[in-house]
Amino acid sequence: MTVHDAATAPDSSVALTFFNDAEARTVEAISERIIPDGGDGAGATSAGVVYYIDRSVSGISQNLQHVYRTGLRALERFCQGEFSAPYVGLSAEQQDGVIRRFFGPEVVGAEETPQMYGDEEEERGERGDLDADLPILRRLFAVVREHAIEGFFCDPVYGGNRGAVGWQLVGFPGAYWGYTAEQMGPGFDGRTLPIATLSDLRRQLQEKSLPDNSTYYGNEEN
Asked: How far is Cα 54 from Cα 27, in angstroms, rounded to an integer?
């Protein structure tokens, strides 16, 4: 599913609020290499992760707008100089290689902390050479990785985890008012519960169809 396809998916209210189309395609491509679709439909692209990131950068993560704006420009400069093509035009193997070059290998030691935080003044330099771009490129991939994971496992109301694909992957049942003693017991398979979202809880409130407290506490008084 491409950014355009996702934008015209059943939820027609979804749209980009910060990224332009080119930026969104690049962020989506990076996210897909971080959380690839293994053939089961559970990848960053199908989960709509780019829309979660777009909303985050427009809202709670406004302080990271410069990381995306400056970092994505630096990434395009690097890819054009190294491959004569934009990041989205590279093969999956080449895209992985770029991520490893600036972010590091898939498995890192405890002492190797991703560059989630940085020197904003240093990162704003745009001389066009790799030495100047290195800090922002390192931080860009660290920030996209963090946001991609958030978007893959968030409640769908925040724009990501479409179809609850992230929750299905790990067997998480989603948003429930509570769980019975049996459901909280060792060995209970949460995948047997139908997945519920925050939208489902809101609908229950509107319809006044909340589960009775006895569902969770038996006949005990609250």
From this structure: 9
User: Is 0.70 topped by the overall pTM?
Assistant: yes
Alpha-carbon torsion, ordered 132, 137, 143, 147, to 10 deg: 140
Task: Name the phi and psi angles at 11, rounded to 5.
Answer: -85, 90
How many helices and strands in the chain, by DSSP H and E? 11, 0
Q: What is the mean pLDDT of the chain?
A: 83
- Asked whether 154 and 52 are in contact (CB, 8 A), the reply is yes
Tell me if 138 sits within 8 A of 104, measured CB to CB: no
How far is the C-alpha of 150 from the C-alpha of 141, rounded, in Å?
14
Could you say which DSSP state residue 194 is in? P
> What pLDDT shows up at residue 126?
55
Q: Do 79 and 97 form a contact (C-beta atoms < 8 A)?
A: no
